[in-house]
Structure formats: C-alpha cells, structure tokens
Amino acid sequence: MIGKRWNVTIDITEHGDDTHARAALAVPAVVSVSGAGHARRGPDDRLVPEIGDEPAAARALARLGQGADQKIVSREEGDRSRQHELTVTSLST
C-alpha cells in the first residue's frame, strides 16, 4: 500500500466577538483549495476567545472539503473551463 500525507493549514483571526478561520490545502499538480469559516460569540456567552476557534475551524474545514469535492468532480467531468483554484466562503454562523 502506498501512503500519502497532505497537510492542511488553518489560520485563525479574532476581531472582537468574531472569529474567522481559513483552511488551505495545496498539493502541487493535484489540488489547491481553501475554505473559510466564521463564528460569533453570543451576547450571553462568556468572553473566552478560544471557544470560537473550534466552530470557525470546523466550518472552514467543512467548506474546504466541499470545495475539494467540487473541484475534483469538475476535473473528472473534463470541463477544463472549471479547472481553477476554488475558494468556498460563507460567513453564516
């Protein structure tokens, strides 16, 4: 069995009550895709910034997966016009 390892980078930034995460996967000659996620602290929640990291990162990873899947399907269908870097972004909470 041949094993491969791909690394995903997650960058997290916080601005007040908002936490933004960006997950990126780049494998030369295979795929380059990223996803973004957002989390917002509720008005009744305690001020613990790290708590927003997990949902924002999870959403970014989920969108990265969706984007990678869309890109691979596009490539397999042979539609060369759709073979480009794909960024999936949603700021919904």
Your description of this structure?
This is DUF1876 domain-containing protein. InterPro entries: Rv2632c-like (IPR015057), Rv2632c-like_sf (IPR038070). Residues 72-85 have a biased composition (Basic and acidic residues). It comes from Streptosporangium album. Residues 66-93 are annotated as: Disordered. The protein has 93 residues and is of the alpha+beta class. It has a single domain, classed as Rv1738 (Double Stranded RNA Binding Domain, 2-Layer Sandwich), CATH 3.30.160.240. It contains one helix and four strands. Strands 1-2-3-4 form a four-stranded mixed β-sheet. Strand 2 (18-27) and strand 3 form a beta hairpin. The longest helix has 28 residues, at 49-76. Residues 81-86 and 88-93 have low confidence and may be disordered.
Number of helices: 1
CATH architecture: 2-Layer Sandwich
What is the distance, rounded to the nearest whole angstrom, between the alpha carbons of the first and last residues?
A: 41 Å
The fraction of residues in strands falls at: 25-35%
CATH superfamily: Rv1738
- Note the run of SSEs as H and E: EEEHE
Order of strands across the biggest sheet? 1-2-3-4
Assembly type: single chain
CATH topology: Double Stranded RNA Binding Domain
* Biggest sheet features: 4 strands, mixed
Low-confidence runs: 81-86, 88-93
Q: Helix- and strand-based class?
A: alpha+beta
Shape: elongated
Helix fraction bin: 25-40%
The top-level CATH class is Alpha Beta
Protein name: DUF1876 domain-containing protein
Biased composition (Basic and acidic residues): 72-85
Organism: Streptosporangium album
Pfam family, one: Rv2632c-like
